Amino acid sequence: MAWVWLFIAGLLEIGWAVGLKYTEGFTRLVPSALTLASMAGSVGLLGVALKDLPLGTAYAVWTGIGTIGTALFGIVVLGEPSGTLRLVCIALITCGILGLKLAH
C-alpha cells in the first residue's frame, strides 16, 4: 500500500507544481488554496509512505513523479519545448524511478 500512497503523493506533487503557475504569486484565491491543499496532501502522503519505504527511494520516486508529470504538462498543455534531448532526459528519469522500484 505504501507504493500506492507514494504514487498519489507524486500526483499531488504535480498538482501543486502546476498550481503554482496559476496562483500568480498567491494573489488568486482559488488556485492558491488548491495549490496549498495539494502541497499538504503530497507531503502528508509521502510521510505515510515513509512508514514502509526507505527515505532515499521514496523521496527520489516522489520528486521523479512530480518532475516527469510537470515537464509533460508543460509540453502538452503550455506548449513548452519538446526537443529530443528533453524527452530523452524525461525517459531517463522514468528509468531511474522504475529502477528504484525494482531494486526495493
UniProtKB/TrEMBL annotation:
The gene is sugE. It comes from Pseudoduganella rivuli. GO terms for molecular function: transmembrane transporter activity. It is found in: Cell membrane. This is Guanidinium exporter. One of its GO terms (biological process) is xenobiotic detoxification by transmembrane export across the plasma membrane. Its main location: membrane. One of its GO terms (cellular component) is plasma membrane. SUPFAM superfamilies: Multidrug resistance efflux transporter EmrE (SSF103481). It holds the Pfam family Multi_Drug_Res. It is a multi-pass membrane protein. It comes from the Bacteria. Gene3D superfamilies: 1.10.3730.20. Belongs to the drug/metabolite transporter (DMT) superfamily. Small multidrug resistance (SMR) (TC 2.A.7.1) family. Gdx/SugE subfamily. InterPro entries: EmrE-like, Small_drug/metabolite_transptr, Small_multidrug_res. The keyword Transport applies. The chain crosses the membrane at residues 33-50, 57-78, 84-103.
